[in-house]
Prior knowledge:
disordered N terminus, four-stranded parallel beta sheet, binds magnesium ion, seven-stranded mixed beta sheet
Amino acid sequence: MAAAHRLALPWGFRAGVAGVVKVVVGRLTGIETVLLDLDGTLYVGSQVVAGAPEAVRWLRDQGLTVRFCTNTDSIAPAALADRLARRGFPAAEEELVTPVAVAERLFASASQARVLAVAADEVRQLLDRFLAGPGTPATHVLVADPSYGATYDDLDAAFRALRAGAELVATQVNRIAARDDGEHLDTGGWVRLLEYATGSSARVLGKPSPEFFTAPLDALGRGAQSALVVGDDLAADIGGGHAVGAATVLVRSGKGDRPQLDAQAEPDAVIDSVADLPGLLRG
Length: 283
Ligand SMILES: [Mg+2]
């Protein structure tokens, strides 16, 4: 994209300024695939963003392919599809792109993965056939959402496995998880803790990893230049999408109306919420 077409994005804009702040129209034509973030974009905590189900329906009605690309790592993909349906976003499991599903594929493709998983029971059950048994040295340490109640002992076991040579794999490295009662510690802090203590660097499966965006596009036989990433996280969604060459739209729901660390990424457009996406794409 020509640098001249990119406009500065001052952080003075706040919700209440209706509609679109900035659009680089040329970037938003020829879109075939829309990669939608979930938390902060379609819903915030348990609250569905007003107009979001209608916006997703509109995208599908235009013949656009929708993929739900989330860093949600506390539940298995099937449960996430149920959650989406309950919230007004009927989605097939194959339309979901989650780091838990990526982890399952990664361990299936590794030869004889034996995984020590710092992860919720549901995620551990999904990965059951790969889990290292008692006394078996782990080949991988997976850190997923620790909010299930991970303890010092869990992290210490992970630390010891890493020191013994296991590879550190992180579902995602988000700093903040926004829930109904405000901000909480997300997976990233736990991953960084283990990196600090062991000197290792995690392989990150979720956003902003380039493969997270290109894998669903590869499966469709499409390139990133015809893809649009929509999300509320400047580093994970906008930075990640831009890095693979996709167009990006920041929504000001969720985290999108706050200054964010690692916020160098610049979206092609900013809208109040995903409900404004049809108007944006109609031009
Ligand atoms: Mg989000």
